[in-house]
Structures are given as C-alpha cells and as structure tokens.
Design brief:
Helices cover 43% and strands 14% of the residues. By secondary structure, the protein is α/β, with parallel strands linked by helices. Residues 370-392 have low confidence and may be disordered.
Length: 392
C-alpha cells in the first residue's frame, strides 16, 4: 500500500491499495487484513505485473532503445545572429532559439545553438540539420546538411535568391510566404512566431506595478507607439537601450530587462504597449512581444495589423492614430474588468495555438519524409536519397 496514487495508477491499475490521509490508511489496512483471499489475489497480480514489466532487465532494454534512438536521431544546429556568447543574453534570438531547442529535444532530436562567430566552425558541420533563424545576417549554407531557413524578423533583408540556397524556407507571415513562394523554387511555408509558456505566464510583482509598460530598444529611431502616446502624464515604464534624446528620460527605467523578468513586467502592468517595425507591418509579421505578453494574461494595445485580428480577434486592442491611442489607454485604465477579460482570452488563444510546441511540430511536419525506424528523420539528414519532396 502507498500514498503515491498517481504513480501506481500509471504502473499498475485502479485496484492497487492507496491512501490519502490517516483515516483512509486505517480503513485500507482493516480491509486488507480482514480478507486474506483478497490480499493474496492482489499480491499475486502485482507480482506477475512486476516480473513482466518492471524488472531491471526490462528497464535496461528500454534504456538501450532510448539511447539507440537518440544516437540515430538527426542533430539540429540553430544559427542565431547574436555576434558572440558574450552579448548573446541580451539578444531576443537567443531566448527564441532556446525555446525551439527545448521542443526539438523533447521530440528526440539533439540540438545545439551557435552564435554568429561560430557558424562556420567544425561543430556546426556535425549537425544533420542547420536551422537558420534569419534576421539581418545571411548564412552560407553547407553541403551535406539539410539547410532550413526560418525568417522571424527583418523581412526586407530576405530575397528570393537567398531562399534558393535552402532546402526549405519558413517565414513568420502568411502574406510574406505567399509572396516569396512565387519567386523561388524552394518550398516556402508560413511559420509564425510563438511563446514559451514555461517562461511567460502570469507572475505579478509589485516592483513592476505600472499603468503602461513598453519593452524594446529604439535602434536610434522613434518607436511608433511611443511617438503617438507621448507626452503623457500616465505612469509609463520603458525598458530598453538607446532612448537618450528620443523620449523623456523619466520614462526609461532600465536599459536591459533579463528575460526571466520580462514576464513580471508584462504581468504587473495594466497595459502592455506594442508596435511593429515598418517592414514587419508591411509584410504581415506579428511581433513576438504580442505572444509573450498575452501568455502573461496582459492586455496589449498595438498598432493595427490585419494579422492581429485574424489570430487574436478582440483579445488584442489596436489603434490607428495618436488620438485613438490616448482614448484607448484612458478607457482601459478605467475599466479593469474588461482589461482582465481580454487578457484572459488572449492567454487562452496563445496556449491553444501559439506555443513553441505548436511551431516545432509544424516545422518537423514540413521537413522531408522521415525514415521508418527511430524518431522522424529528415531524408537528407538521414543520409538517404536527397530526391524527396520537402512538401510532403
């Protein structure tokens, strides 16, 4: 008899004796000790099950099979644009890549991440699949690997000629995918951005209690939503770098917010502000900030983008001009129950459709046809024929 009810239900069956408190323990003992035949029948049943399914020989065989599958699984190498390890922690691509790696490894694929200075090193050549998270820097693809592109930002920097160098291309916009697939022979698929619910979830922190929060760098240009909002008497916290001379310094609370702290800022502010770079808006790329903030249950106000309404309906509030933005800020600060309802709906939608578990599943499903033994293996990566159609 045990108090580990969930464990024995998984290993044995519903009749295995368990207890939850002192009273239940006493009752179970009385029942078992009073019925020798019943007790012996259970003992014989679970002895048989243990000898058939739960011996060290059985576990050794299972371990060997897991190790075999792991050894035979293709390895992924994710290429990110962060210049080197020293600065990588401040790059969003680093945290994005880690979330992708976690899901790849959960599916049985070994995975490593390389910064820009490591792209062409020997370690990068040992991976069966090179997955380039495309930002600004182009990658020189290598023969003998399955070369996969995932364009998550700076779409204006991606050309059809660059897509031609890859076996499969993914872009974080349906609109941009439709445009590119008409210009290249490489299969192009939409693969939107996502969030990691193990990192982004509701986590209120009074230190981050604000009316408004914006997390992002300026890149030495005005950000649309702050230009439309400022000046303001509202309690606005801006996290990010290069804001000197662009906005009132009293709003800038820090140049860098560690990734594990971002959820606290999103969870604790009444409203999270978001905007899109011009090229991302033009090509239909939804900012990754949207997914992360919604996963925290936040109300998000963003510049208008048709893809936002398609993906999130009324869960994300959008605006066109400065006057409308200020009216929306005032309205939602005065209606906390409506803020809460929209935030909860946004979180539901993100968890249902927009996690990295969803995205990695989509990505793996679009890679070339798998080998029949072991985990799913891309054809090129498995050393099989390279003539397979990646669209399958």
């Amino acid at each position: 008899m045990t108090n580990c009810r969930a464990g024995v239900r998984e290993l044995f069956d519903e009749e295995f004796p368990t207890y939850g408190d002192r009273k239940e323990l006493r009752a179970q003992l009385d029942r078992l000790l009073a019925d020798d035949e019943y007790r012996e029948r259970l003992g014989a049943r679970y002895k048989k099950m243990v000898l058939e399914e739960h011996t060290y020989g059985k576990r050794a065989g299972q371990l060997a099979e897991l190790l075999r599958r792991r050894a035979e699984a293709p390895g992924f190498c994710i290429k990110i644009g962060a210049p080197d390890r020293e600065v990588a922690e401040s790059w969003g691509d680093t945290h994005y890549a880690r979330a992708v790696r976690r899901q790849l490894e959960a599916n049985g694929y070994p995975c490593k991440i390389q910064t820009l200075d490591e792209w062409d090193g020997f370690e990068g050549l040992t991976g069966d699949v090179a997955l380039h998270l495309k930002g600004l820097t182009p990658y020189t693809t290598k023969p003998g690997q399955l070369n996969v592109l995932w364009n998550i930002s700076h779409p204006e920097e991606l050309t059809a000629r660059e897509c031609d160098r890859y076996d499969v291309a993914f872009v974080a916009s349906r609109r941009w995918a439709r445009s590119l697939e008409e210009q290249t022979d490489t299969p192009v698929y939409p693969l939107r951005q996502a969030t990691d619910p193990r990192v982004f979830y509701p986590d209120y922190d009074p230190a981050h209690d604000r009316e408004l929060v914006f997390v992002g760098n300026s890149r030495r240009v005005e950000r649309r939503i702050l230009r439309d909002l400022l000046p303001t008497s509202r309690d606005l916290a801006v996290w990010g770098g290069d804001w000197e001379g662009l906005i009132d310094e009293r709003h800038v609370v820090g140049e860098y917010l560690p990734n594990e702290e971002v959820r606290k800022a999103y969870s604790s502010a009444a409203i999270v502000l978001n905007d899109h770079w011009d090229d991302m808006r033009e090509h239909g790329f939804v900012s990754n900030r949207i997914y992360d903030a919604l996963a925290c249950g936040a109300l998000v106000i963003s510049d208008r983008l048709e893809e936002l309404e398609e993906e999130f309906g009324e869960a994300v509030v959008t605006y066109e001009g400065a006057d409308e933005l200020r009216e929306l800020v005032d309205y939602y600060l005065e209606h906390p129950e409506e803020r809460k309802a929209r935030g909860e709906r946004g979180r539901e939608l993100v968890l249902e459709r927009h996690t990295f578990e969803h995205r990695v599943g989509e990505l793996l499903g679009r890679l070339p046809e798998p080998r029949q033994t072991g985990p799913a293996l891309p054809v090129k990566a498995a050393g099989l024929t390279s003539g397979g159609d990646p669209r399958r």
